[in-house]
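Reposting from the mailing list since nobody answered there.

I have sequence plus structure tokens for a pair of proteins and want to know whether others read the tokens the same way I do. The first protein:
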Amino acid sequence: MAWTKYQLFLAGLMLVTGSINTLSAKWADNFIAEGCGGTAEHSFQHPFLQAVGMFLGEFSCLAAFYLLQCRATGQSVSSVDPQQPFNPLLFLPPALCDMTGTSLMYVALNMTSASSFQMLRGAVIIFTGLFSVAFLGRRLVPSLWLGILATIAGLVVVGLADLLSKQDNQHKLSEVITGDLLIIMAQVIVAIQMVLEEKFVYKHNVHPLRAVGTEGLFGFVILSLLLVPMYYIPAGSFSGNPNGTLEDALDAFCQLGKQPLIALALLGNISSIAFFNFAGISVTKELSATTRMVLDSLRTVVIWALSLALGWETFHPLQILGFLILLTGTALYNGLHRPLLACLSRGWHPAPEAERERLLDGNRTPINETN
């Protein structure tokens, strides 16, 4: 069935804003500017402040929810249920996981390439599958195990490509290894977040925009408050600011004043995360979660291609192989192989309910698959 213009717009919006999200964060990392007190020029390495901006973008989804609610007022049929009772504190544990995982990923993005960052995020499939078995009592059918094994193989290939790309002038080999490991660690936390959402949040049938916005509110408030003690916590060589602390928000604002394009990059990151959430939820509703997964894979290609074109990283053929293997793992895990099998065999029947009811499948989309 042909897509409508609105559906094409939503798909394009998701692809573009999802790509801008990662690229704008990496663009900000690449800027060099003076800090406070006339300190020497240094890179804009403020991952925790960038994470605050990301949560601000998520928080804006709450405004989108209430706008939809106002629009639906007076209509007999509404996709927004303002009377749905739920305790907002249910979102606090997932928000803490989101805050920790996002902060780790922004730290890692300072150390590795944007394309590797996007590819290695596919590791979430491994931990989500394992945690769903351990804590939700799921049973993984063979196609899911094959998807997990293929994802592991793809991660190994991508990691090997990073190790062999020693000619990258932006990142030392030790930084690349540390960054890749941090991304993997972050996916463990993201998987815990998804399990918590599945176990405690989904059953309340909260509107996705409301869920994302509520988690964004918690993350924004808590992480903003944590910027104060971070200013005094020494981080040694791990720090990217002249003060040598975990985060120096004052230095970040001074650099913003010296180089206004950093503000443009941060604004792009904040706005893109908001539109990406809206577009992703709308694509799932108007088309399917399968289409959303395909578009998410396509944005990895866009990020990789633009990073190469901008000279942010060097080409390595192993990345192609790694991406294809990761794509295969994602396809198997999310059941994208079923339509192909349906075309090849008329005798194909839908998979049993036990296979369809799982995390990250066509019926259950993570509440905020955003970073």
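The second protein, same order (residues first, tokens after):
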Amino acid sequence: MANQSSSSYPILCASFNQDTSCFAIGTKDGFKIFDSNTGRLCYERAIGAFVIVEMLFSSSLLAIVGAGEEPSLSPRRLCLFNTTTGTALRELNFLTSILAVRMNKKRLVVILQDKTYVYDINSLGILDTIDTIPNLKGLCAFSPSLEGCFLALPASISKGSVLLYNVMDLHLHCEIDAHRAPLAAMALSSNGTYIATASEQGTIIRVHLVSEATKSYSFRRGTYPSTIFSLSFGPSTQLPDILVGTSSSGSVHAFSLGFSMYQRSKRSGSFLGSIIPGSVTDALDPAHHDVLHNASPAGVKSYAVIRKVDKVADTSTSEIVACRATISIITYNGYFQEYNLSINNQNEFLWSLEREFKLLTVISDDAISS
């Protein structure tokens, strides 16, 4: 299937802030910020097309990059914008287009095609420059935690190798050979403990433990190739319970990590479980994977995050018997969807659509009151 450019859709970019309490979209007219819990439009600015809009938690600071449709919105210029005052705080200019921006409370990371710059976010002093392989899509993953703050970048153009860089300590942590084919998507857990990757083939999703650069899980997404648009871990600070991904088929895939440990411990007591490594059986066992079909039209780019996971315990034994996840999805043709996903300890999945609305028709409270 031919790739469809996101420029043919009303949404040019979409991102959730670091705790998923808010999300931002860039359009051909400007950018908008929404409250994830209520869907309320919190802020909008109609000043031209934007291809990057990144928030710093729920603060008034935005990192924005224009689409280049007018000289003042060059894709080579990063603007740090204050939503309270409606003014630019600082601008950084580069020789080539900015492909991605990531932030936490101490660091600002700017990704170009063959270089990545690390800044102190307060002084905007440059701390390090990382020379990279050609990264035409600006593919990266970032864990905003100050304790485990890692940046993941592609390390090869011919295979799916990942470079992991410690952004706080400013040194290379490790390199992981995750796939045979080049990378298409990756995500770090919020505390930088795990990294999930998918290759351009899109049939296998792998999860590695960052500290030891070892594979923990291997999930089969499907038999036929598909472009993986996004990957996202649940917010757990321990072992993430769930990993979700969106694909060009229009489906949302959910993989059970926490509960697969429960199943693995049961299986290890059997003869088959004693001779087959857990990571191999995970790849072959469909019980840890469920698919929500037709969440968006096939080929339309989509972006999903797990905003919340609640665990349900048996009152008599205190054993965890289920978990419920809140999964938010932005589709680049202009929709927001939110699903509740329940998984029990038998790895049975149940999806329910909680809300859906068009992002570009939401009116702000200010507009209503005026």
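Reply #1 (J.P.):
I read it the same way you do. The domain at 9-98 is CATH 2.40.10.480 (Thrombin, subunit H).
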